[in-house]
Every structure is written in structure tokens, then in C-alpha cells.
Design goal:
Length: 199
């Protein structure tokens, strides 16, 4: 099944009906951020960037969960032949390619945990993986925001973990890499970021 905007948006709508929550609006803002940044990168497709951003949390369709949503999203996309989107369902949570840097709870069976551990270790990340990782940290359900606001938002919900600061550093590093590509601050491409960050 070809991955296109219509199918991805329908999948998100149905997933949000299955498990209503702020995660769906967050996903929409991540998608818009990915599209806006990709538009300034010669080697990235705006359409693919939007689709990968939109689907990164699609595993939440299966209900409220922690790290289980990663493998649920992977399977959801793989069943439809959306291989890169499937990878990003897992990779977006591991900007550092080490399962031990997770900030969530592995509410999965042992086989799924071992699959994810190997998958994360062996995955070949490209700029789409990194784009979704940074845009995930630039979007609240209410709109775009400063990275630091999202860092605090996530830490309040998940707690402080041994890898938290290293994860922040990695996201800041990815942000800097994209700013070099696009020739401006990422915030210049995110409408309403100032208002949403300080309200």
C-alpha cells in the first residue's frame, strides 16, 4: 500500500478515535515542523518528511502505553509496507542508538524488548530519522515551542533518567546540524513558536 498524505492522515484520524488524546495534535505539529524544515533542505522531500512526522506516534492507536507504542507503530506501518515510517516509529525515541537511553517503561514482552534492542543498535539513521527526532522536541499538542520547554514537559511526565542530559545534548546537536543545512534558526520556520512557548 503506497504511503501518501491521504492514507497517513486517515490513519491518524482513526488512531485518534481509537485512543483519543493530545498525542494526535502533537503528531500534526511534528509533521508540519518536519515539512517546514525539509523545504529548506535540498536532499529531503517535504512530503516524506510530513508523512514520517505525522506517523511517528501512530502506535498510540493501540491504547495508553509507554514504550509499547514504539513497536505497535512499527508493526502498524510494516503491515502496510511503510518500511521507513516503521523504522521512525522506533528510531524517534532513540536519538542515541542504545536501548538503555530510553526514558520510558518497557511495557512489552521479552521478545519485543529484545527485538527493539537489536533494531535500535543496528538501524541506519538518515536525515529523516534525525528530522523527526528534533521536530518531536519542537512540538507540543498546542503548537511549536522552544526545545527547552518540550524538554521540561517530557521530564515532568516521565521523570529524570540517567540518559536525560545526554538525550538533550544529542537533540541540540541535531538542531545545530539542521540549522547549518537550512541557513537559519529552526525557530524561524515554526509559526507561533514564541507565543506558544511563553503562554
Amino acid at each position: 500500500m503506497e504511503l501518501n498524505r491521504q492514507r497517513a492522515e486517515q490513519a491518524l484520524r482513526e488512531a485518534a478515535e481509537s485512543n483519543p488524546g493530545a498525542w494526535a495534535d502533537h503528531s500534526r505539529y511534528v509533521a508540519m515542523a518536519c515539512e517546514n524544515l525539509a523545504a529548506r533542505c535540498e536532499d529531503l522531500s517535504e512530503e516524506k518528511a510530513y508523512l514520517y512526522g505525522l506517523l511517528h506516534d501512530i502506535g498510540r492507536y493501540a491504547g495508553v502505553s509507554s514504550e509499547k507504542h514504539l513497536i505497535d507503530g512499527y508493526r502498524f506501518c510494516m503491515e502496510r509496507g511503510w518500511e521507513k515510517a516503521a523504522q521512525i516509529c522506533i528510531s524517534h525515541a532513540f536519538m542515541i542508538q542504545d536501548i538503555d537511553t530510553s526514558i520510558g517503561e518497557f511495557d512489552v514482552c521479552e521478545d519485543d524488548y529484545l527485538f527493539m534492542k537489536e533494531f535500535v543498535a543496528k538501524a541506519v539513521y538518515d536525515d529523516y530519522d534525525r528530522l523527526v527526532q528534533v521536530c518531536d522536541a519542537l512540538a507540543l499538542p498546542t503548537g511549536f515551542c522552544l526545545l527547552e520547554k518540550r524538554f521540561v514537559d517530557v521530564t515532568i511526565r516521565y521523570g529524570f533518567h540517567p540518559a536525560t542530559i545526554d538525550r538533550w545534548k544529542k537533540i541540540l546537536e541535531i538542531k545545530a546540524e539542521f540549522e547549518e543545512k537550512i541557513g537559519c534558526s529552526v525557530y524561524d520556520l515554526l509559526p507561533g513558536v514564541v507565543e506558544n512557548s511563553f503562554k
